[in-house]
Specification:
heterodimer; A: 11 helices; 13 strands; B: about 70% helix; binds adenosine-5'-diphosphate; binds magnesium ion
Amino acid sequence: MNNNDEIMIRAEALTKKYGEFTAVDGINFSVKKGESFGLLGPNGAGKSTTMRMIAAVSKRSGGELTILGKDPDRDGPDIRAHLGVVPQTDNLDTEIKVKDNLYVYGRYFGLPGKFLREKSRDLLEFAQLTEKADAKVDTLSGGMKRRLTIARALINEPDILLLDEPTTGLDPQARHILWDRLFRLKEEGVTQVITTHYMDEAEQLCDRLIVIDQGKIMAEGSPAELIQRYSSREVAELRFGSDRNATAADKLADLGDRMEILPDRILIYADNGEAVLEAVASRGFKPLTSLVRRSSLEDVFLRLTGRSLVE
Amino acid sequence: MSEAKRNIPPRYRGPFSHIFSGRAHTVVLRSLYALKTSAWYIVLSGFFEPLFYLLAFGLGVGKLIDGVTGPAGQPIAYAAFIAPALLATSAMNGAFYDSTWNVYFKMRFARLYEGMLATSLGPMDVALGEIVYALLRGLVYSTGFLIVMYAMGLVLSPWGFLAVPAALVIAFGFSACGMAVTSYLKNFQEMDWLNFVMLPMFLFSATLYPITVYPPAIQLLVKALPLWHGVELIRHLTIGPPGMAVLGHLAYYAVMIAVGLTFTTRRLTKLFMS
Ligand SMILES: Nc1ncnc2c1ncn2[C@@H]1O[C@H](COP(=O)(O)OP(=O)(O)O)[C@@H](O)[C@H]1O
Ligand SMILES: [Mg+2]
């Protein structure tokens, strides 16, 4: 099959209100087949709310939403039959064994037992949980539970996999194992929608993403495009001590393309960060610490909203 | 990964298909898997509790009592009088416990229903599946109890065997309503109120003595209670003779079932799918 432009999800002016409060405020996006699409934004941005609407378990308050060509208001169960959902908080079945979590979940989709037995074995292997097949869910570590949740989401061979903050709360090693698994799925052509408030995760996993804040889309593009559009190639980070950052910033404002003053440091955006450091030194300023790094999505977010992603 | 592309069998397409996919049986299956890991003494206690009541009151207290009569005014042993009431009560208790405490836990803490409703199951599948499982338990308990009644010679009517399906109807009514009420409760204190209602209902629904001991006004009140209808229903079947009153009691439960299912489904939709 070679219809990679096939649209899997289309949202137009998609809105969700809780009473008077607007959690998702008229957002537009579409997700193509095989794509890894990201929703990057801070806590409370409306990412989970958007995910739940896509998962056809939360009714939209306004706008249009089409998933696999269907309207979730009308065809909820039919849409959900083709989705794999990894919610922000694990909801594994703690009263049954690890392997039964996969088998029984598959039965909810109406899948036959014979298919499911083989499929759960494969998925346990994929999730590196084969040894834990007969264990109780409560005995698994956080990373294992997350992998089991992902395996469970794959039991119906979904056309779209929805991952809401897949690695939040995991230690670095567990995160890398998980990223590796998700990358494998991407190679197999599974369409993924991923929310995260970690810019490194978005950079690792997403082909294309929207940056959202307070229910609105601030920007859209591939990680590289966004960085190119909204930031410079490099960033010089300078710390003068919290009481002296502001005065130093005044005198350095003309350096680089742009400057951000944070409570604990000054960021100067420029194509050549080392040149900025040299200029700072030649003006007689001696920062306590300084470093040069490449621009990241964090800088994009800062530029767009004036705030950090992770507070 | 396996090459076999999954083949989702066609699902139910009739009325309510946006909240029902015809797979309530998979929710029952899940409970059977969970049963494998649960404590057997809790499961068995549901069977022995009414049995202990029967022995203590029927055989013990019963020795001191005579002059009890059946639905047609025929004189019967005290044990034969309370046994059907205990059967009805155990059907009620089993179903109610399952659909209140167990459901509350799954709904508020285990997020079990959230997981189920992310699949192609609808809220009505979940509600029905949970209730049917509670009924299966009720079926096992009431069959066991009826066998004991036969063995003790307490089944006086040839229609006695119908007490098992009747107990299921009672259990269905109580679990549908229990689940509906539970879905509105917000904490354990509110859950405790349920016990506050159930125990007096057991004591005052003409279970251990005839309703005629009450003054007429109180009798009307008792006749409004769901357990009284269950008790009378089973008495008509195990003591006999089963009259038209049986239909009235069944109708009472039909309403309980319909109301309970409607509110449960509506509430699950609101809680997990809005
Ligand atoms: N069920 C709800 N009722 C009321 N407000 C809600 C509900 N769910 C989420 N919100 C609010 O909507 C906003 C977006 O929440 P959410 O989508 O969970 O954000 P994110 O996943 O990006 O952290 C938050 O301000 C949150 O408090
Ligand atoms: Mg969230």
